[in-house]
């Protein structure tokens, strides 16, 4: 390999990129824009969810109970008439995702110290919000029960009786949230989006590079030159990796300073991980570009692969341990899951590089394998 | 020019597009993949739920009740990992992500519990994944109160003084997906994502390609209007997407994965066709901003990624900030997500869906009008 030739090829790629203003602008702005829009869009917790309340008891107790739901930021009441058939339809028509039905006799039964039932319907079409809403309902209800028992026990046995304490506070649980004490979802989403955006942008920047030369015929200039295949591919790869690293640092700065997610790890270790990941994803783009015949195919395959790898198989939303074995296996075909573990580990939890060397090694291996495959599939002379 | 001739010309051009796709084997295999295998794979997607979540337990009490408490932690939600009482090992396991939380049962737990001294258990939660962290802590809290209440209640009953307390029981029913089967949601979400990307990207890439190679000039000097060219491109790709969705929904989702199909197939497929045409309008529009394929890829990602992430399958629209909600109103997918889940799982009909379908068509009309206008303008 002749480094001078690689340098010349890199210079050619750079001057080509510099002439394409729109491409160059997007290369640097796309990652930032995606980061901003996604973080603002996805960190919203489950808030403002429409709830239909059917209160047939219309008592002080039932109003106090339903008010517990409405006073959180999670729920907001949707007005529907009191007929339960109409209330039902509100879930189907997306007006509400939750229906709470308090039957008559609610207050009377509670005053007699009897258990009472409250019916709840949750829109299960979207499973994740449904589970979260179910969790909120359980938590709010548990708090209501706690207060109820405390009052009841105080009346029955006196507020200081040991039996009262035993039934109302059998144990205490002191919870401490590590790494993200306020449970901000920004602190979870924004760093993870680095994985997603860097799975998308560098591969797209490189996706058309090889196949464009094939389609336009300028590949024949290379075919008739002394440039080797590897030098040619490296000439494509180096500028994109450089842009990818700049993107990576921009995103890092955005996450740390704009979204205020503290970086706890070792900066050098994280930079190394970033570099290995950008090389791996860029090489995947290069592989697609070397394997296909048209630019159209190159951008479509690259985009969709990035979407699939980062959204479906990286554990962005739910821990991969809960996926079925096939999905877990497929997640190993992309470097996204490894980098996400590194982000959560080094960036968020401040773990040392020694904890994450298997992931680092894996990312390096992805890069090497993708580049080798691209080298095997790329021919200076096209088949036609 | 007669309508018949006009249509013949369009269909001739469409045939050309189909042939081109058929000959691009890499692209064709990928299109087949996204509508079959990819949907099937989505059925095994992970769910945000406690499912044998590894949790470390440090038992400092070593009593009968502490052991009973550990034993009673539900195995479906937790994988209990007994830990030695060593800070180093605990923090390493948490850093590594091997444990999602660590529960410490204090010394004197049994004694305090029986004497009503409210023993304090400690839970340390890894909140780097905030959703899972919250799930873990709130579930643990609830289960601990229930279990320790049972332990106390058992003791009280044994002493011959059972305690009856008022209680509000939630009778929860989940509608449209009673057991919250993740695959029902995930396969449809994956299909909508793929349809959206394909509908925008395929026509956009096809149009830019002709522009880049100069073949679009050949087409323009032929007896074809620019509208015909654009329509043929978009409809050819739309038809492919429609065929793909038919296979994906009818065969993969309904037959293989077992997703119910409650509503009318006619409503579903006519509206998915409408959605495909609407989105391809966005593709036509996007293509007019790009001069080469490299640019169109970036422009489409700029459009498509926010659309698929913010249109309702991955995040709730009502929870977003207002400015973002206003932006999302311009995403045709927002309406189609409601339509698709509505027809498939809720059995909604046009009586409920027409406002969403109407808004979607208005957007489609606007995209097409602007797209065709800009496309024509390029060649003046």
| Helix count from the secondary structure assignment of chain B | 15
Spatial order of strands in the largest sheet of chain B: 2-1-3-4
What's the shape of chain B? elongated
Helix content of chain B: 55-70%
DSSP helix fraction of chain A: 55-70%
Structural features, described:
- The complex is a heterodimer of chains A (384) and B (380).
- Chain A is α/β, with parallel strands linked by helices and 384 residues long.
- Chain A contains 16 helices and five strands.
- The mean pLDDT of chain A is 88.
- By secondary structure, chain B is of the alpha/beta class.
- Chain B folds into two domains: 3-45 and 183-377, no CATH class; 53-158, abc type-2 transporter like domain (abc type-2 transporter like fold).
- Helix content of chain B is 67%, strand content 9%.
- Chain B contains 15 helices and five strands.
- The two termini of chain B are 22 Å apart.
- The mean pLDDT of chain B is 88.
- Chains A and B meet through α2, α5, β4, α6 and α7 of A and α2, α3, α5, β4 and α7 of B.
- β4 (115-123) of chain A pairs parallel with β5 (167-175) of chain B, so a sheet runs across the interface.
Using brief descriptors, characterize the structure shown:
heterodimer, A: 384 residues, alpha/beta, abc type-2 transporter like fold, four-stranded mixed beta sheet, 5 strands, 66% helix, B: 380 residues, 2 domains, 15 helices, 67% helix, elongated
Briefly summarize what is shown:
By secondary structure, chain A is an alpha/beta fold. In chain A, 66% of the residues lie in helices and 8% in strands. In chain A, helix 3 (60-70) links the parallel strand 1 and strand 2.
